[in-house]
Amino acid sequence: MNRQEEGMKVFGEMMPDLKGTGEQTSERFAHELGNISLEYVFGTLWSRPGLDRRSRSLVTLGILIALRASGEMAIHFPIALRNGLTREELEEVIYHATAYAGFPAASEASHVASKVFEEKQN
């Protein structure tokens, strides 16, 4: 299996609700970004044996919180749940981030997570 196929497999397991992933059209600006993400991020990094997916979710969310990457956090909070983290553990990640990324970053993460969890309930 090549990295693109592996990336599609991993992404599909973590985000089964998203359809059409990897189907990029050349009309979209930076249209290859999705393919690069599938091949490198999911096909290479998320597929490495050194950490389990649960641990990778913890690391990923910590980084995204520090970067205040709201759009990516909105994708990765559901992935973290699917990878075995609980809502309580995700709250602890946010609380812990206040010491290292700052209160504004943790507050933003809290808002994103609240919105994601609210949407999941509806």
What is this structure's SSE topology?
Elements: H1 3-14, H2 33-45, H3 53-67, H4 70-82, H5 87-100, H6 103-121
Helix pairs in contact: 1-2, 3-4, 3-5, 4-6, 5-6
Give the averaged pLDDT, no decimals.
92
| Number of helical stretches of at least 4 residues | 6
Compute the CA-based radius of gyration: 15 Å
Kindly report how far apart the N and C termini lie.
Answer: 37 Å
Morphology:
globular
Largest sheet: none
Give the helices and strands as they follow along the chain. Answer: HHHHHH
Residues in helices, as a percent range? over 70%
**Fraction in beta strands:** under 5%
Report the structural category. mainly alpha
Number of strands: 0
Low-confidence stretches: none
Quick structural summary:
The protein has 122 residues and is mostly helical. It has six helices and no strands.
Would you kindly provide a written description of the structure presented here, covering whatever features stand out?
The chain starts with a helix and ends with a helix. By secondary structure, the protein is mainly alpha-helical. The model has no long low-confidence stretch (mean pLDDT 92). The protein has helices spanning 3-14, 33-45, 53-67, 70-82, 87-100, 103-121. The longest helix has 19 residues, at 103-121. It contains 6 helices and no strands.
